[in-house]
Records
---
Amino acid sequence: MSWKLEEIELLNPIVLCGGMLNDALILKAIDFGIGAVTLGTYSSNSLSSHPKPWLYKLKGSDCYVNSYGIRHSYFDKEGFIKKTVAYAHSKKVKVICSYVEREPELSEKAVKLFEEAGCDIVEYNPTPLVMGCSGKDPGDLLDPVNLVKLTTEHIKVASSFSSIPISVKFPSTISNVVRAWNQFVERGASIAHIMNAIIPALVLVDGEKYFKTERGFGGMSGECVKPVSMARVKMLSDGGARNIIGTGGIMSLQDVQDYISSGASAVGVHSLIYSKGLAGLKSLIESSNKLFRA
Ligand SMILES: Cc1cc2nc3c(=O)[nH]c(=O)nc-3n(C[C@H](O)[C@H](O)[C@H](O)COP(=O)(O)O)c2cc1C
């Protein structure tokens, strides 16, 4: 039995996704023997933040809406990244280092720092740009054609300055995943991470916007995302892609199996932590250790 992303061996197919998880929680996931953890998402500047609340649970469901923000730069986090990579490797856990930049030339700094820190995979995650987290209006990036073009420019820079595998975390706004993936592969990406939260999402409570972002927009995660994300995993895998991380709404072992049978090589979890806590994560890892790869 072996779980692999590219040629990178994983203890099991579970990957902790990037987000607002605190550093202590990431270390706990490593102690549980998770397949991989994602650190971040970071940028060269802490791009945007806003007051709490950051998370809203949709009533009667395991669905959430979160308000985006990039709260740390990878320069601030360099010490943590290095220490965590060393600790993870001592436990045979792999590390994905995730970042977002608007200007393609800035990808050079990020990937050099990640490679030097020993990260196993570098992940470009453009969704925060579409949410306006770069401090700039997303403007043209709301159009998926422009977003795909910008992403290919970042991959091109990243692959020319780094020898570690490059993952792209797909924004929900790119629905033609096969066409986009062909362009990303051509520039040097080798892992497709499907997908980030569904954007934009708006929550009103008593007629008032719940999040204090400019327009109150956020992204939807949790079980509501699973059917959409799984369909895209299937589209990519039917198109011949391998090394797919399937993410969105994984709460149980059955969800993991569903993604694997749709063509994913590994699966990302995030909202699970809000729904079932650390105990839920531990139990999913333990049950996944017994899964056999077809
Ligand atoms: C509170 C919160 C913060 C998030 N922040 C990030 C982030 O910083 N980077 C990222 O790539 N995805 C981020 N996400 C998206 C998740 O990593 C994941 O792609 C998405 O939530 C779908 O998976 P899930 O249903 O298991 O949560 C965040 C999600 C939540 C709920």
---
Amino acid sequence: MSETDLAAIRGAVAKLCASFPGEYWRTLDRERRYPTEFVRALTHAGWLGCLIPEDYGGSGLGLSAAAAVLEEVHRSGGNGAACHAQMYVMGTLLRHGSEAQKRAYLPGIATGELRLQAFGVTEPTAGTDTTSLRTTAVRRGDVYVIDGQKVWTSRAEHSDLMLLLARTTPRAEAARKTDGLSVFLVDMREAVGRGLTIRPLRTMMNHATTEVFFDALEVPAAALVGEEGKGFRYILDGMNAERILIAAECVGDARWFIAKASDYAKTREVFGRPIGQNQGVQFPIARAYAATEAAALMVERAASMYERGESCGAQANMAKLLAADASWQAADTCLQTHGGFGFAEDFDVERKFRETRLYQVAPISTNLILAHLAEHVLGLPRSY
Ligand SMILES: Cc1cc2nc3c(=O)[nH]c(=O)nc-3n(C[C@H](O)[C@H](O)[C@H](O)COP(=O)(O)OP(=O)(O)OC[C@H]3O[C@@H](n4cnc5c(N)ncnc54)[C@H](O)[C@@H]3O)c2cc1C
């Protein structure tokens, strides 16, 4: 997609976001409420369905367009975490879902009638070691019976569908630990109260995250995505998209912090001059700016490689690492620039500071990205 087209997307999303100012997000944050109105507006404007092909009611754009949308939401002071999963799980459904699944779900997702916002991978005991997850799905005739637990299943209460990773072949019987895992598209509207229980988890920011429990939940065999036992590969595929999109959000956060810090440094006068006249104040902002622009280039590169179908694991990981570091550096600098006022709710800095901190840990922690680069790019011995 050309720079002009991406700039047009950013402009249109910025206009939409102007109707959801800091006050809107601040109130939700205080009350730990879900941004229903914002998600509805983003859906109705077509932005959340931008990755859905035109044949299924979407606009058929690529990952660069989706990254531009999410970056702009964050650059405008909002938070795409309320709805970004729909974009990053889309690749798994588009690449590996059956025609029947796509026909059944995609048009509804494009109009907003159906919400695909829950992604159930992480478990309390497995942590980052995904292949040791314990949730099982056992085939019994026309159904799979699911038992187990997920944690940090964000937006489960605000989603109709969940993309779920579960073990269909016991680890001991699988040739490799990455075999025997399968992906399901679970219709939660039918499941809640019939084997699926959702419990909200309150966190340091407004994130609508939950833990979910599966107790002999029956899902139709047709809920299986792709082939049984190949789910880990499908999910890994989708994880590159997730890393790139979240990196774009981090770039958006960093740009918001840098603009906010620069504006404040120009206008706040102490000792009879703007604080931004001091190099001790302006240099950290300039450094954060340089880090952000470098990260943005890596996000752009990873997104275009993904769109061309090239292998982009290293680039997606580096984009996520650099962008999450840049946003955290910018957040810290912005807070410091504001002095005491950085801690006041009304400035939105402390809210965004809490929100952007997540991306040092989720969806993949910094250490694990470094371990991936060390092993797969530099050829160093596997450390875990
Ligand atoms: C708010 C929030 C929302 C989330 N949303 C979702 C969601 O929607 N769906 C979902 O499936 N998951 C979700 N997650 C889970 C998230 O992806 C995980 O928290 C993340 O992958 C880290 O896993 P963990 O918390 O189990 O940490 P652990 O794996 O327990 O790791 C703990 C710490 O140890 C470090 N560590 C572990 N192993 C190594 C190693 N070998 N070398 C070096 N360091 C290591 C890690 O870097 C980390 O800092 C969410 C998490 C949060 C907090």
